[in-house]
Amino acid sequence: xxxxxxxxxxxxxxxxxxxxxxxxxxxxxTHGICKNKGGLTWTWFHEKLYECxxxxxxxxxxxxxxxxxxxxxxxVFLHAHHGVCAFHLLGNIVHWFGKNDKTKVLFWRLVKAYxxxxxxxxxxxxxxxxxxxxxxxxxxxxxxxxRAYSLSKLYDYMTSNSVESVxxxxxxxxxxxxxxxxxxxxxxxxxxLTNVTSEEV
Length: 201
Hints:
By secondary structure, the protein is an alpha+beta fold. It has helices at 39-53, 67-76, 86-97, 101-112, 116-129, 131-137, 142-145, 161-169, 178-200; strands spanning 2-5, 13-20, 26-34, 60-63, 81-84.
């Protein structure tokens, strides 16, 4: 889930929650228009999402590191797993410590490793070559950003790229007034669901 600023006369923010279905297709779940991305806003949005999907231990959220999102998920979805978007983490590493191709490759191998012994071996290599990056990663619980230590057996999607795709599709639509904008997303969701259903048949 993520949010994007509207571009027209209304300067609100649109929040999105999307899922990935069994065929690895993006499935838009819900959208909401709000004034900001504060804690009360995310709580409202997650409560509405809760009405749609409920709460279960196999539910996984992947977002950026915003505290407002984390706290809201923990308060509304008591049994869900919340992971930190690995792409955002890598972006922060590049921003703070500079671009390095070897660091990028090692980072992706590290967060995607399934076995803890493989993770620890990669972690040791990372510690010896980029200690400052490892110090930064130590600020984030491993359960939130690695497969090897994830508490959820279904933690396979490690980025919020799917919701970023929805944001990219709606660049022009976000210049519309609110009602046509919501109609755009309703039609988009309906078309996606129709196409997925047609492909399955």
